[in-house]
Amino acid sequence: MVSAFEAKLAEIANDEFQRFGGHREDDAVLGPRINTYWTEMKWAFPGFKTAWSAVFVSWCLMKAGATKAEFKFHKRHAVFVHWAIGNEQAQTGPFRAVRFDEVSPAIGDLIHWNQPGYAFDFG
What we know:
Elements: H1 4-20, H2 30-40, H3 53-64, H4 77-90
């Protein structure tokens, strides 16, 4: 069963994709929206040369209603991924990492995939 939070998170992400999917970062349509993700998180927008996907994830979770007590909002994926791994190991918190080969993805799940050349895992 999908929770209200999971449904809201999926709706937010899908709406953003419907509005901005397929645009380049420096397009007149998407550029200002990327700035919005940064500024609504209360982070300074450093420009388009800075990776922004973790900011987008954080923004979606904030808009869906996650609080700072529930999620480790950050500009870098590694920060909230490692935090979620720690939650799983301690069996605490609503956001816990699980190995992708142990469960099937569901609505509201975040799936982390390493950048080329990196091999971060639960170890």
